[in-house]
Amino acid sequence: MSDRRLVTIEFTRSKKRLPIFGWIIQMVQRTKYSHVRILWKAMGEIPVIYEASGSSLKFIGPKANESNPVDVIHSYPFNLSNEEYRGLIKLCMMFSNIAYGKKQIVGMGLVYAFGLKKNPFADGRKSQVCSEVVGSFLDKVLGWETGLDLDIAGPREIQETIENHIGAKK
């Protein structure tokens, strides 16, 4: 068994015919993507995605992923130690099936539109959005201490954080 596990953070956009919600996120965030998720291979070969989408936080296997295709715009690979990998699985299991933060997304839009300092619909992790999931991974599993307010940080802020952290290591 390897001492390292490859985990990838992917920034994606939907291939659905009219992904209006995604387009709105892309417009507000000024990005070519609207979603961020975590991907790894379980048992060395089965792709598993963990994401906040639809109605909840969930694990997505390869068959379910085929019915909801996406374009991967950016991806960032991370080689996790076995301890970090266990932390990832623990984090995912702790939040699995928590509701998707639809109200929180509206609150994030209000923050961007009106320059608010706090998300008026933040609920203390009772629900989550995609950027919260990945931000929690960066903070809790990788120990990055991002300083991001995960109630208002969107996919763009997650990507900027990754880029800044990677750039700092070079």
Specify the CATH architecture: Alpha-Beta Complex
**Global structural class:** alpha+beta
Main β-sheet description? 5 strands, antiparallel
What share of residues is helical? 40-55%
**CATH structural class:** Alpha Beta
CATH homologous superfamily, by name? endopeptidase domain like (from Nostoc punctiforme)
Uncertain regions spanning at least 5 consecutive residues: none
Number of helices: 6
Distance between the termini: 29 Å
Instruction: For the largest sheet, list the strands in their spatial order.
Output: 4-3-2-1-5
Shape: globular
What name does CATH use for the topology? endopeptidase fold (from Nostoc punctiforme)
Based on CA atoms alone, the radius of gyration comes out at: 15 Å
Number of domains: 1
Average pLDDT figure:
93
Order of helices and strands: EHEEEHEHEHEHH
Care to count the β-strands? 7
Strand content: 25-35%
Main traits of this protein?
endopeptidase fold (from Nostoc punctiforme), 7 strands, globular, 170 residues, alpha+beta, two-stranded parallel ribbon, single chain, 6 helices, five-stranded antiparallel β-sheet
